[in-house]
Amino acid sequence: MTDKGGELELLSVLVDDEASDLEVRQIFGELEANHLLREKWSRYQLVSEVLRTGRVSLPGLDVSEKVNYKLEQTTKTALHPVWSVAIAASVTIAVVLAGQQFLMPPPIADAHKLVSDLGGEVVPVSGAEPVLAKFDKNLGSILNAPELTSPKTSDVYKGITRARLKLFGSQHAAVAALTSPTPFIAVARTHQSPGDKEVSN
Amino acid sequence: MIRKYLIKQLVFSGLFWATYLCAQPLDKGGSIDQCLESPHTEVLLERLLAAYPSRNYEGTVLFERPKERHFLSVSWPRAGYQGELRRLNVGGEESKEFWPGPTRKFAEVCDLARAYTVLSSEGRVIAGRPTHRLTFKPRDSLRWGHIFEMDKETGLALAAQIFGPNQSVLERFEFAEISISAESSAETLEQSPISDNREVIPGFFEVKEGAKVGIFSVSDGFATASVFVEPLPLGVPLGEGAVVEGATLVYSRGVRFANKSALISVMGEVPVVTGRLLAETFRQALGDS
Question: For position A121, what pLDDT does the model report?
């Protein structure tokens, strides 16, 4: 710790920009601990400004104390750590539960109306994404094959499918009857109607 | 300090377990309580699956498809553990047809819950009997939707319809009159084999294979499709075609594999896309054999 005269000499050297690194560290340490020295430093800066620019900034403006005071007050009013954790946990649980509610389907007021409002073949269901058929990479090329677009081929296969309906209907009905709560309908389907609907390709 | 530490640990633990439990998925093939969200719907579906063939019944059915209508007389059971069907308006003559009695449950609740979303509501009065309505909305485009109206007292399906895209009704039936007697003495059915069998295409499991007669059947618990493989007739070019009668599809496709040709036919209450997918699956299997 230097004496008062030595501090002022160091301060003067610093203002003149002639201080060595050691002297700079020394005087900054003194400035941090001695507010009278800080005030003198402030006056030196004010004089320097006047000499250089001919103007003066607000001489009385010193926000450092107010800032320090504010910081101390903010620290005192911070939440207790336990409360902070409790609030964070509550918010997290609320977000998880709200997210689940958001993903749940809306309550069904009228199943009849719901069925009639459905559109398209794929029904979006919460928690269960529609399962897409895994088509083989070659399937697309087969469906687009030139022979499938031939009208002659199309007519041939219409006749083939009608014949298979009659040929295999009973066999399929016997199996379908074992996998239905209404087995008699599987048998009833085997009756052939003259106006079956053809699906063109 | 210790108390504050313990409180902090308690809060963290609670947060962890709440997040963990909320994120648990449904177990595949677990208990009924885990397959459907509504316990009431679960009970109704279980009753629908168990009602047939545990009840003796006899009645008249109206069966409708686009451009056709049939009146049928049905009764269960008849001699030989079979059901009997008579067509009342076919050419003015009655003809008897039979369906086999089941030896196993055709589906379990969890099997159906994988393929359909199941909803329950109040049904109509059918043949003088109040009903519950169960709606099965398909979870993908490989199957049609189903609606069953089941007798409140016995669980028997008194009316049903199959609907396709845009809620178009593909076929429906309804009992005009029915008499249901006490529970039959049929043996308790074994569990459905569906969920234990091989999944051939998404949601459809193997239910029957008969290599000698060239038939292979798959089902999702409600919809059944049978695949027939035969040599491609001479002179028939490679190609595909389909016929749809009500909800029943017949799809045929001529394929070539390993210097051979075959005709693969798919028949079932499924959309065309499912028929194509099954045919392609079998074409690949033939090519690999």
Answer: 44
The ipTM value here is 0.81
**Which among A168, A190, A192 is the top mutation candidate for probing chain B, defined by the most B β-carbons within 10 Å of its own β-carbon?**
A168
Checking if the pLDDT of A136 tops 70, the result is no
- What is the 3 state secondary structure string of chain B? CHHHHHHHHHHHHHHHHHHHHHCCCCCCCCCHHHHCCCHHHHHHHHHHHHHHHHEEEEEEEEEEECCEEEEEEEEEEECCCEEEEEECCECCECCEEEEECCCECCCCHHHHHHHEEEEEEEEEEECCEEEEEEEEEECCCCCCEEEEEEECCCCCEEEEEEECHHHCEEEEEEEEEEEEEEECCCCCCECCCHHHCCEEECCEEEEEEECCCCEEEEECCCCEEEEEEEECCCCCCCEEEEEEECCEEEEEEEEEECCEEEEEEEEECCCHHHHHHHHHHHHHHHHHC
State whether B241 and A199 contact (CB < 8 Å): yes
- pLDDT tens for each residue of A65-76: 777 777 777 655
Instruction: Inform me whether the C-beta atom of residue B12 falls under 8 Å from chain A C-beta atoms.
Output: yes
Instruction: Say whether residue A79 is in contact with chain B using an 8 A CB cutoff.
Output: no
Tokens of B86: 């008579």
What letters, b where the CB count within 10 A reaches 16 and e where it falls short, cover A48-79?
A: eeeeeeeeeeeeeeeeeeeeeeeeeeeeeeee
Of A93, A127, A160, the CB nearest to B252: A160
B158 lies within 8 A of chain A by CB: no
Question: Confidence band (pLDDT; 50, 70, 90) for B155?
Answer: very high
Nearest-Cα distance to chain B for A75, in Å, is: 20
Interface membership of A81 toward B (CB under 8 Å): yes
Across A21-96, the runs of DSSP E, i.e. the strands, are none
| Nearest-angstrom CA–CA distance, B164 and B177 | 27
Nearest 10 degrees: Cα torsion B61, B65, B69, B75? -20
